[in-house]
Amino acid sequence: MTVRIAIVGAGIMGADHARIVAEELPGATLQVVCDASPERARTVAQEHGAGDVTTDPVATIKRGDVDAVVIASPDDTHAPLSLAAIEAGKPVLCEKPLSQDANECLHVIEAEVARGRRFVQLGFMRRFDPSYRDLKAILDDGSLGRAIMMHNFHRNVEVPANFTGQMAVTNSAPHEFDVARFVLSTDYKAISVFQPSVVDTTKTGAPVFMVLETDKGQLVNIEINNNAAYGYDVRGELVGEKGSVLLNAPVYTRRNDQLMAYERYAPDWRPRFAEAYRLQDKAFLEFVRSGVFTTVAADAWDGYCAARVAEAGIEALATGARVGITMDARPDLYRRPKLP
Ligand code: ISE
Predict the structure, then answer these.
(1) pLDDT at position 147, please?
(2) pTM to 2 decimal places
(3) For residue 59, how far is its CA from the centre of ligand 1 (angstroms)?
(4) CATH placement of domain 3-124+276-298
(5) Ligand 1 environment, Cβ below 6 A
(6) For the CA of 154, the nearest atom of ligand 1
(7) Any long-range contacts for 322-330 (C-beta under 8 Å, 24+ apart)?
(8) Confidence (pLDDT) at 162
């Protein structure tokens, strides 16, 4: 039986999920595309062969001919629409962040706990990226000794058009908050945040540099530079006691001419993480079909943890102080292994 999927939000990521569902997920049907703009919904629906278009997200989630939902609408709609999906009893793949407000994440968690199962798979797709997975596997096999530090660099060509305020901390950095926590199997105890005073730091998109201390005593540094100009570039290095592992991006060619050698950068994150998105969406389909939550996937608890770290990061940036990070008690539902 095919799984009928609704895409809510037909912007850059909604369109990409629509393409993946239509072209790369045998067993899934792109049932309906919903967007506040009917033209945008129609364009994506026509391009990927969706059966219908709508503009009301909650009504779309409730439809009898929709089995599961992908939420790719603006950040402040993620938690309310996830709650609507939980209420409708439908699994949901929600783009990150779950919310920019950790308390709102707790509402989603309470709703899942009340129903005794997970519904929300959160779109921290880097957990599925082969380079991060390899890095984690190398760390977990013990040959590097204990992890000491993880360096992370996250650069966009230019600040995305929808960014305001400190979305470098609340929208971009949650990828690193989550993936470093996932790779190192730890939580954080404190964050410090810096900005280079050589640039105008009042402008959205000014670089941000963070240092996180983990519960295990490791250091994780994160550079977010959303105006890097030259290309989309995500780098990382895990430093262990006996060696280090660098992330490689999928680059298929290197060009040589005029006494130079060079590689092409993607203009945005989609080519760099294409395989991660595909594997993530495939895992979501499996979750919908089997009811078993994929072990590597992020859930609402992981979304809460990232939001808490982002909140502490905003405070650290505003005050210039090192800010301690504390978490609520993790409900039993979110202890691994991840059953529904
Ligand atoms: C953007 O907001 C995203 O969500 C992408 O996943 C990320 O890679 C990009 O750098 C962000 O700006």
Answers:
(1) 98
(2) 0.96
(3) 28
(4) 3.40.50.720
(5) 154, 156, 160, 171-172, 175, 269
(6) 10
(7) 322/190, 322/191, 322/192, 323/190, 323/191, 323/192, 324/189, 324/190, 325/187, 325/188, 325/189, 325/190, 325/191, 327/187, 328/106, 328/304, 330/301
(8) 86
